[in-house]
Amino acid sequence: MTCAARRFEHALLIDGTGRAPLPDATVTVDGDGRITYAGPAELAPESPGAAVFDLQGMTLLPGFIDAHVHFLFGPKTNSPAADQALTAFQVAERMRRTLHAGVTAARDLGGLSAGYARAQEVGLIEAPRLLTAGRIIGHTGGHCDATGPDGHSATSHFTILADDELSARVAVRTILREGADVVKICATGGMGSPHDDPDDEDLSEAEIRAVVDEARRHRGKKVAAHAQGTAGILNALRGGVASVEHGYGMTEEACDLALANGAFLVPTLATAFNPLDPAKMTAAHFEKKSRWADNTRQNIALAISRGVSIAMGTDAGVSPHALNLMELSYLVQLGMTELQAITTGTLSGARLLGIDNAVGTVEAGKLADLVVTDVNPLDDIAALARPEHIRMVLQAGSIRKDTLSAATRSLIPS
Ligand SMILES: [Zn+2]
């Protein structure tokens, strides 16, 4: 027994599979944190001794999965020379807020060391379940190389440079030695990078193929490609990556390739929908971002309409932390139904992360990573993004946040 058995009653259940919502559902969880039943109240088995939660008026969902975050980055990001303990506590605080916003699993695509994932696993910190990429692999002078003209690099803690197929393979071996769960590469330049643009290519198709093959040789590790412009997106897909991150320049051809390969798109729409503040960036950066935002909406809408597999990712760290579920409303604005957006943020993310055997839906046999909200997200998906509407969060049956029972308790006269 790792936690108390629990029984949730009278909830509107949206189970993450894409099935229609089920009113007056019962969900039972055993002492090992596993879901033993999720379905209509009238068919629910007894659960003697379980703590009972009355979820009348609430919606019960799987915990959400953000497939693209950077917990190391944030408004209070320290320079690498800053105190490491201070950085660690700042990261832990971002993770806890993200968990409390309903995200029970996340994939950190650059910057975070594997120690944070291990700390979460053993319960040292309350955080989403974590997959980490550690250092990002890219070309000299590419998107993730912020080395200045004087040769001074402030980015070696989140970047590893590779300029041919062999050094790309060595880079994969190096980051796996450092504990990476997933390999992150740059296939294009970027919005904020000093030396290049989204339409510039980074790793070549042959180098990407070498990375994908090297990752495969190590227990089938997956490769995620930062890919914004069309040329690099096509290189990444032809090279066999598991996911295109951002994908702003998706075309019909790119959709065809993604569909043929079973590759995912993680569109990080927060970066295209967040209003831009010219006071907070250089003029060149502002111009670049504005120009790309419109194209992004059209191209991601195309990918949605073509049925490309999409997982929710926010680029939190570049976009704000703990507002992750805003991404769902952006997906709806570009053509998804609310139910499709919820599946994108749950089951699809679990599939991309390779954890769908354990989490991602509310079904018997899976771990009870659950979210309870006081809104009906099918009526108002944007409201889900406000952390105060996330009333309970559980991971494997253990309560991580509960403002619901606390409110109920306060009604009981003492
Ligand atoms: Zn990113």
Description of the molecule:
This protein is an alpha/beta fold and 414 residues long. It folds into two domains: 6-62 and 362-411, Roll (Urease, subunit C, domain 1), CATH 2.30.40.10; 64-353, TIM Barrel. Helix content is 31%, strand content 21%. It has twelve helices and 18 strands. Strands 1, 2, 3, 4, 5, 16, 17 and 18 form an eight-stranded mixed β-sheet that branches. It has a five-stranded parallel β-sheet with strand order 11-12-13-14-15, with helices on both faces. Helix 4 runs parallel beside helix 5 (230-239), helix 5 packs parallel to helix 6 (252-261) and helix 9 (326-333) packs across helix 10 (338-344). The longest helix is centred in the C-terminal third of the chain and has 24 residues, at 283-306. The relative contact order is 0.16. The model has no long low-confidence stretch (mean pLDDT 93). Bound molecules: zinc ion (ZN). Zinc ion binds at residues 68, 70, 109, 315, 318.
